[in-house]
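Put briefly, the fold is written as integer tokens. One such record reads:
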Amino acid sequence: MPPPTSGLFVDPDFPPCVSSLVRRGGTPLSPLCERITWLRPQEVWPSPRLFTEDPRLGLGRQGILGDCWFISACFALQKSTKLLHQVFPTGQCTWNKPGYTGRFTCRFWQFGYWVEVTIDDCLPCLGQKLCFSHCQDQGAFWLPLLEKAYAKLHGSYESLWAGQVVDALVDLTGGLVERWSLEDAEISIRKKMLCRMLDLKDRCAISCSVLHSKEGAGDLGEFHAFTITDIQQGVTNYGQELILIRVHNPWGRSCWSGAWGRKGDKWALMDKSESAKFLCGLQDGEFWVEKEEFLQEFNEVIMSFPVDEMEHIQSIWTDCPLLHTQQLYGSWVKGQTAGGSRNNVSFTDNPKFWLLVREQSEVYLALMQRPQTHDGTYRSHSRNVISKSTPLYAVGLHVWKVEKRRFNLQKTILSPVVAGTSSHSYDRQLHLRCELSPGYYLVIPSTFLRDTEGDFLLRVLSSGPIALSEITSRQPLVNISEDDVKGTWENREVKGQWKKDVNAGGSRNFPSYCLNPTIPFIVPSKARLVRVTLKQHCQGKHCHAIGFHVYMVPPDSSLSPFVQEPRASCVPHSYSHEVSMMCDLSPGQYIIVPSTYLPNQECDFSLYPYLPRWRGSLSRARRLLEKS
């Protein structure tokens, strides 16, 4: 008899009711809502547990929700215990144990960091059975709980109806994922893909998809995702070598009647003991496909990058660990930094980044755009919820090598790229793989259409040391050399706060901008270079878009510094914990104006003006900073 469930945690933000099932309607789920009840695992199964001892019994089955893409991606967690514990933290009190409250927490990687999603364990059921995802071993409940947390992250279960395996794998791993088209690839490329799949099958999550039905394979459906659970080499009685691929259909039923299906006639070509190795232990929904059949019937393969024991992402092409990573946030702002594709003369207005590669390296540059909700607003960091309608823009990424940091921008972008997307694509995340020699590289992310506004995250993962920095919109492209910034630096920390209706004036787009805090400092006669860093002290993981401007104080004290243009600007405002830039300033007295992009956003901050340490005294500069 199951223990009583009264007094257990019920999530007020994602309650067991219709609003958590559907938000807008329009899917086959809507008519079933009134029949769905919510039960806790101990009301569904006599002795529920989180995980099964046999990983083969942990394969996911889909249920009546159209989220095969998510179920297939969850196979990644069965490839790595560390990754499983990252997504489903250990130590959570489960059923029939003291301290059980009906509360569980999962983690997902969202736009640059891991976020926690807490849920109750009330699960949708029809009758006494789970009606959405479940494991082959129906007494294991990690998958339906993870699915519920993912549904909460997206706003409702209905929001999971149709999606991309690639996106789910990124959310579950925080890593890189490649999608390989099997339709357009040359024979040599296909062979290379299959070799890598065979080498990495025990370390990577591999999925495959049918995007449209083909003659003879209509039983596979279309727009359907599958999981590749194994790849084996075999041999026939006639000495013919084979590569057989084991595929799992999350529908949980047999759907393949090919030559190597469960009752296929090709097994007669093998010795019985050999064929038994393949057929023994097949789970519901699993079937074998020979290599040529696979290439003919499936349209694409999706492979996540493996993670080694030190939790470093590894290249799927060279097995090299990508030991060096760096990421920066940026924005495309209409009329400022939304320059569009290379077809537009305004392409150079796009955000620009320096990438310094210090030694020969295998480098991956990943561009992720932040999806917008149906009303044009951005995902809420505080609630971590996004609606089903999340339009993505066509985005691209291009990289040029420059011999030195003094170069002509217009000539550079007209020269051949070192690496670049062949076309702008509607992907949430895309990446480029490059073999880069030491030196400086110009990196430009762009949208296809000019004046398309959005936020993005640029990540660099490299086998060798790298440095990534943004070229701000007012920073001259005749840049400071690396020799200029060597040595020691004098700095002071200035602590401040943006307060609503007091000094949280927002960006220069708003009349209240002049209310922002101002921090004075002096550039001595022997110094020109000033490194300015602004850090926000966020509550939890909620970040504001921050930036700053540097103004020279006019000789006439009656004039406001704001009547002139800034001498340096760290914009567009970035959703980052820290923004920084190097300023080349003539000697004199200045103020730094830190700001959030929107007015009335409250937050504590620290500002660090770094000046080169000279033998002469900087006491006057210190006094000004202390007065601030």
Summary: Residues 374-389, 474-490, 613-628 have pLDDT under 50 and may be disordered. The CA atoms of residues 10 and 600 lie 34 Å apart. The chain has four domains: 18-173, 177-304, 324-471, 487-627.
